[in-house]
Structure formats: C-alpha cells, structure tokens
C-alpha cells in the first residue's frame, strides 16, 4: 500500500511556484532557488504569474533562463494566466516570443 501511495504522489504531483506580486532583483535569489528545485525534481512545473504587479529586467531574465532550462530538459511546464503588467513588461523587453507566452496562456 505504501508503494502505491508513493507512486500516486510522484505521478500526480505538480511543482507550483507562486511569483506573488513582485519579481525583481530583490526577489531573484529566492525565486530562482525555487525554480532550480522544481527543475531538479523532474516533475511538471506550474508558475503562477497572475498576481505580478512589478517585474524588472533581472526577474524577466531569470524567468527566461528557467524557461529555456525546462524546455531543454523536456520538463512539462505551464504559465498561469499572466497579469496585464507582466504581459506589458515582457512585451516592452521584447521577450514575448522568447517565453512563448500570450494573454491566452
């Protein structure tokens, strides 16, 4: 029975990371560690970007690097519905296509 429970946990578990409302240089280390831990788990990852009210270039670069790592490791990945501020910031930085993200995500 214990084996079955472990199996269910590993197949159903989804790493979910909430970026909350701020993704800037002051938060990069904290968020980046969570992203690395998620990548190392090898399980599907979901990033909640729906509440972001501020993102700077350092935060955007971190998300881009993470996205590329997940993609290269073929780890299933999804963005939650992005906030309007997130979309505008990513567009201004020219990263919309790089992150393969749109308002319909």
* CATH level 4 superfamily: STAS domain
Between the first and last Cα atoms, what is the distance in angstroms? 38 Å
Mean pLDDT: 85
Q: How many structural domains in the coordinates?
A: 1
Strand order of the largest sheet: 1-3-5
Strand-residue proportion: 5-15%
Shape: globular
Specify the biggest β-sheet: 3 strands, parallel
What's the CATH topology label? Transcription Regulator spoIIAA
Total number of β-strand segments? Answer: 5
CATH architecture, please?
Answer: 2-Layer Sandwich
Pfam families: STAS_2
InterPro entries: MlaB-like_STAS, MlaB_ABC_Transporter, STAS_dom, STAS_dom_sf
Domain STAS: 23-105
Protein name: STAS domain-containing protein
Describe this structure in words.
- This protein has five helices and five strands.
- Residues 1-13 have low confidence and may be disordered.
- The protein has 105 residues and is an alpha/beta fold.
- It has one domain: Transcription Regulator spoIIAA, CATH 3.30.750.24.
- The chain is globular, with a radius of gyration of 15 Å.
- It has helices spanning 2-12, 28-41, 57-72, 84-92, 96-99, and strands at 15-18, 22-23, 45-48, 54-55, 77-79.
- The strands form two sheets. It has a three-stranded parallel sheet, with helices on one face. It has a two-stranded parallel sheet with strand order 2-4.
- It starts with a helix and ends in a 6-residue tail after the last helix.
- α2 (28-41) runs parallel beside α3.
- This is STAS domain-containing protein.
- Pfam families: STAS_2.
- Residues 23-105 form the STAS domain.
């Amino acid at each position: 029975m214990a084996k079955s429970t472990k199996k269910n946990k590993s197949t159903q578990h989804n790493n979910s990371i909430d970026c909350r409302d701020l993704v800037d240089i002051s938060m990069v280390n904290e968020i980046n560690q969570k992203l690395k831990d998620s990548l190392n788990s090898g399980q599907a990852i979901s990033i909640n970007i729906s509440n972001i009210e501020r993102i700077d270039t350092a935060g955007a670069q971190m998300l881009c690097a993470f996205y590329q790592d997940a993609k290269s490791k073929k780890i299933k990945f999804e963005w939650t519905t992005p906030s309007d501020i997130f979309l505008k910031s990513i567009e201004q930085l020219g990263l919309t296509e790089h992150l393969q993200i749109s308002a319909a995500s």
